[in-house]
Amino acid sequence: MTGTKSVSDTDTDTGADTESGSVGIRIEGVRFGYPERPVLRGVDMTVRPGELTALIGLNGCGKSTLLRLAAGLLRPDEGRVLLGGDDLARLSRRATARRVALLHQSAPAVPGMTVGHLVRQGRYAARGPLGMLRGGDDPVVRRALRDVGVEGWADRDVDALSGGERQRVRLAMALAQDTRVLLLDEPTTYLDLHHQLDVLRTVVRLREERGLTVVMVLHDLAHAARFAERIVALRDGRVVADGPPREVVTPELLADVLKVAGRVGRDPEGGWPVCYPDHPLPGIEYENHIH
């Protein structure tokens, strides 16, 4: 479909893949929320080593929260998150950051910061604050810059970049953590269509070249159906659909998960599902949504 690595449907191992070094994720009975505001209501999900998975659902369904739990930034109220077989609750934040990188939806601008300096921030977990700030050549940073095609931008100010350029640099910063798991929270938000496709194609390529396990939150079901080999749909803090795009993306999914009436066809060349949304369905109470 997209040239991504094929993973057997029967392979449920979440340890390290001995050939690629990829690491899997297992989420077991995870509940998380705030007083009187539950977000995740018992999530079970396994991401196999080397797999590219897209999380979809309405705002407030728990997608970003699930990603932060998988990155070790939050601790579940119940259940556990395993990374390569290790319980994240038993690891420090820095130890977790050596294993999994999370590209947040947005980040505050830092005036005067160059591209090279920003990407070096990704070395914090490996080198510590002093090692990260020391000058000199770092082959991991150099490779991250090269892999996303921005090696010539090291001395440019981040503030001077376009939105698409800045997202490529932030992706390089995540790669500089040098982990086997990459989590992306809406990586195409605020980007025009050209840069959306550019970022997603770059992620697919990097996943193949580096043997990464990738989970990304996407709002655009069309992008999820084209670029991911697996889609997990959340509704009200629960997994309600999980499988390959050709099986999961249906008119029923549009109505039940995204609250949209529509039709689903097939791309004549690639064969992936193509959605034709017609109109929104009633019953959405936005004030109850939790990000």
TrEMBL record:
Region (Disordered): 1-21
Subcellular location: Cell membrane
GO terms (BP aspect): iron ion transport
Primary subcellular site in the record, as a coarse category: membrane
Topology term for the membrane: Peripheral membrane protein
PROSITE patterns noted in UniProt: ABC_TRANSPORTER_1 (PS00211), ABC_TRANSPORTER_2 (PS50893)
Gene3D superfamilies tied to this protein: P-loop containing nucleotide triphosphate hydrolases (3.40.50.300)
Any single Pfam family the record assigns to this protein: ABC_tran
MF terms (GO), sorted A to Z: ATP binding; ATP hydrolysis activity
Gene Ontology annotations for the cellular component aspect, listed alphabetically: plasma membrane
Record-linked SUPFAM superfamilies: P-loop containing nucleoside triphosphate hydrolases (SSF52540)
ABC transporter domain mapped to chain residues: 25-261
Keyword terms of this UniProt record: ATP-binding, Cell membrane, Ion transport, Iron, Iron transport, Membrane, Nucleotide-binding, Transport
PANTHER family: IRON(3+)-HYDROXAMATE IMPORT ATP-BINDING PROTEIN FHUC (PTHR42771)
Protein name, as recorded: Iron complex transport system ATP-binding protein
Protein's organism: Streptomyces pini
Lineage, highest ranks first: Bacteria, Bacillati, Actinomycetota, Actinomycetes, Kitasatosporales
